[in-house]
Amino acid sequence: MAKRDLSKQLESLTFRCPACANTFDAAPGRVEDEPSLEHHPFAYFAECTRCGEEAAQAPFHKSLVKAWANATGPKTAAGKAASAKNLEGHPTPEEALRTRFNALKHGMTAETAQYFPARPGKYPACSSCDVDHGYCAKQPACIKQAQLFMVHHAAFEQRNPKHLTPIYSSIQASITAIIQQILQTIIADGVKLEHPAWAVTREGDIVIGEYNDFETGEKRIIMETKAHPLLKPLQEFLSRNNLALSDMGMTPKAIEQEEQQMGRLAPGGDGPPSISLEDYAAKQAESMAALRALADRANARKQRDPVLIEYQQQNGGEQ
C-alpha cells in the first residue's frame, strides 16, 4: 500500500466526544493549524453524532497518524524482495502460539461472533458495560464476551487455571452477596409464610376456608403454613459452595473429633498412626539415653586409641 501523504488534511477521522464518550468516524467539520505536530500539523473537530457537542480527534487516532508518518520500508525492487525473503519460514510454531488469538482480539474472524454478535443494550451485562455502545455496534462480536471466551480458551488449552482466578473470584463474591440477600429476605419475611386456605367449587368459585370458634363464636380463617420458598435455594447454595457446618468443621461431631486429636501427633502420609504427646516424650527420652551411652562408648574408644596416646605423650599429655 502506498504511503499516505500527511502534508494534506485528512478527509475522514475517528472522533471521541468528551461529553457522552461517543466514538465515531466522520468527516471533520472544523480544522485548525497545529504547528506542534510536525508530522501532521492539523487539529480536527466534528459534531458528535449522539449529543451534538463538538468532539476532537480521538487520541488513539492521533497516535495512528503519527505511526503512519514514521512508517518506513523498502522502496527499491531489491529491497522489497529482501523484505519478502525475511518472511520465509514464518510464522514458526512458537510464533503461531503467540498469535493464535489475534483473530479473537480484533474480532475479524472470531469464533464467538456467531454466538455473541454485537448487540449494544440487549445483553444483561450491557447495563454495566464500560464499552461505548456506538463503538460496540460497529464490531462483529461483543467485545466483553469475546474476551471472556479468549481467556477460557487459553486457560484450558494451556491447562493453567490461574488465568481464570480473577473471573471466578468475582463469581464467588457475587454468589456470597446473593446468599446474604437471601438471608436478609428470609429474616425480614420470617422462616414461615401463612396464607388463607382456599378451594375451587364446581361452579368455579373460590371459597376461603373458614370455621366458627366455639369459645368466642367468631368466624376464623383457616391458615396454611409453609416454609419460606427461599430456604431451599439457600441450602443448595451453601452445600454447593462447601459452606455447610460440616464442611467448616462446626458440627458437634466435627468438634469432638478435633478435640480427640488434640495432644496427638498427626501421621505423615502412609506412616504409623498418631501417638500421644506422652508416648512421644518417652520415646525421645529413650533416644537421648541411647545417644548418651553411644557417646560414652565413643569417648572410651578414643582414650584407648594408640595413636592418640602416643601423640599425647609427645606433647606432654596435651590433647
UniProtKB/TrEMBL annotation:
<protein>
    <submittedName>
        <fullName>Uncharacterized protein</fullName>
    </submittedName>
</protein>
